[in-house]
Amino acid sequence: MIFRRKKYIVDAGIVEEFNTHFNNTLLPTQLKYGARLVGRWMSQQNDGTIEIFAIWEYDSHAEYEKIENNVRSDKEHVQRVQNWYGKMGGRENLKDVFHKIEEDFIETTVPYENTILSKR
Predict the structure, then answer these.
(1) N or C: which end of the chain has fewer CB within 10 A?
(2) pLDDT tens for residues 33-60?
């Protein structure tokens, strides 16, 4: 089992629109191809920006790569994302409100069976 953490630092003014985009566009396609969302959270930062991060669970790094390739190859999904960029004034415009995007893989320090994830 591996876990992926995806983190965004964004302007507060984009949060509602970004969360709607995540729930209506990004999440359904990830789920369609087998990604498992553990959760997604946000918190206010001292500088007025918002940190939004999600934790995803995969069976292996190879499974993650397979899912990501399927998502990127889904022409309807790619078009929906492009449409959202257009609605938001273009991808370049979003660089002014998305200050940082990071992704890494994290390891649990607790035996899996001692977590709520094992209760599924």
Answers:
(1) C
(2) 999 999 999 999 999 899 999 999 999 9
Tell me the C-alpha distance between 61 and 67, whole Å: 10
CA separation (Å) from 79 to 69, 93, 115? 15, 18, 37
**What is the distance in angstroms between the CA of the first residue and the CA of the last residue of the chain?**
14
List, for residues 76-100, the tens digit of each pLDDT value: 999 999 999 999 999 888 989 999 9
C-alpha distances out from residue 60 to 3, 32, 65, 71, 81, Å: 9, 17, 9, 17, 26
Q: Which residue(s) pair with 39 in the sheet?
A: 55
Which of 51, 55, 62, 59 is closest to 101 using CA atoms? 51
Q: What does each C-alpha distance from 29 to 48, 72, 114 come to in angstroms?
A: 31, 10, 30
